[in-house]
Backbone:
DNA sequence: TAGTGGTCTAGACCACCCG
DNA sequence: GGGTGGTCTAGACCACTAT
């Protein structure tokens, strides 16, 4: 009386396997049946069963190793997927009106801490840009960014008056690697003023470093207005 | 003089396609060649080409629609993947010694705000647990958690002396849905004391709500020690 | 060394949806 | 209507690794 006979698609198989994991038919840390066995049970093929199991492994439910078999993982370390959108899209996507404002842009010598973060060697010129993003005319995000001129020479011609540096970079510079960090920071005088809050307020901050091959492109700090939550469902 | 002839694997094809996207051979917003065309170029099969393109679509580089074809996306809204590990593993994985300490656990009536967050109806009993996680004997994380007793009746027998509530729940209760939020909070007297910092310090905080089907299981707030950064590479 | 997953081939049918 | 992607079948060879 196998529960599944008509089921053939990889989605069906995924669901059945997931149910068996949840109901402890295949308990955590145990080895579940091999692909060949499941092919037999579901009257399917290895291609299809493999796709189901591979996706479940990608999603963090299973661990697969040749010869060792497929192990059910203890903790579903389900990957949180944050799609870090362009700020404009994040605001308009919420049904609000987006407004951008450039605060300032200037070429400077890269400070010590930046050279360390970006692994820069020798003296380097960077373009330091500060700007604001508004949602329905309320402060939404203060963005501070350093762009490595050696990597993006054409950036010196950009004005960033109509378009934020992120949108400009996305259009102009391909990126191969991204390092993303989230943290809590403290509003200083400047941040408090721009984000329309009081000094000392905790702010949710994202920092993103992007690379083109081995060349650092930019480091961006995005300080969100007080009370911001970054939320996702898995 | 096609650059690729020996290449056959889906990984090779992924890399080639990615390069062409980055070098603007197939510019953003354009329609790239169909699977059949690529099968011809790479002397491959649809199964293989399809896997390459499907994965690139999953990773946010492409948008695929029947009949319309495969479109190169403007902004690589590459998904940030955070594997939210068990705190114990996060600490030991960093090479530090992990220590757990229960602060207190008591059954209470669910307060208003909690009922709203969990979509609870009517009076509900919840187990309120507070505990600390240490890394090399330094405060690492203060955890505050509310567990819905109606959903997890056996929780009243747990002591949480040797094991944190998260680890206990992972072993005992399957979960179908997770809502995860990140935010910045302000250290109050209690938090400052437990996390060995001063009142008013900004703290990185994660909030996780888990569900079993439609039944809320738990809401957890994890306050990290000052200076904590959550980092990922994409 | 043998079992298990990783991947590819060759072909097929179908669902969707743009023109 | 017809082109495109979505998926399945049936079979094969190979890479890795536990035993």
Residues:
């Amino acid at each position: 009386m196998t529960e599944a006979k008509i089921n053939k698609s990889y989605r069906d198989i995924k669901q059945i396997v997931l149910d068996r994991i949840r109901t402890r038919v295949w308990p955590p840390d145990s080895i579940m049946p091999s692909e060949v066995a499941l092919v037999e049970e579901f009257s399917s093929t290895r291609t299809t069963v493999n796709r189901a199991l591979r996706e479940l492994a990608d999603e963090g439910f299973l661990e697969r190793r040749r010869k060792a078999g497929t192990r059910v993982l203890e903790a579903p370390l389900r990957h949180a997927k944050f799609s870090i959108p362009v700020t404009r899209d994040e605001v308009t996507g919420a049904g609000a009106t987006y407004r951008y404002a450039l605060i300032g842009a200037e070429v400077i010598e890269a400070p010590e801490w930046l050279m360390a973060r970006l692994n820069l060697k020798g003296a380097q010129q960077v373009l330091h840009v500060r700007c604001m993003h508004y949602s329905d005319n309320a402060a939404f995000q203060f963005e501070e960014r350093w762009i490595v001129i050696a990597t993006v020479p054409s950036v010196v011609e950009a004005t960033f008056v109509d378009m934020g540096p992120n949108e400009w970079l996305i259009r102009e510079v391909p990126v191969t690697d991204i390092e993303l960090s989230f943290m809590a920071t403290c509003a200083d005088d400047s941040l408090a003023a721009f984000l329309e809050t009081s000094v000392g307020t905790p702010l949710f901050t994202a920092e993103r470093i992007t690379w083109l091959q081995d060349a650092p492109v930019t480091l961006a700090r995005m300080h969100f207005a007080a009370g911001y939550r970054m939320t996702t469902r898995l």
Observations:
- Chain B touches chain A through 51 residues (CB under 8 Å).
- The first helix of chain B runs from residue 10 to 22.
- Residues 1-5 of chain B have pLDDT under 50 and may be disordered.
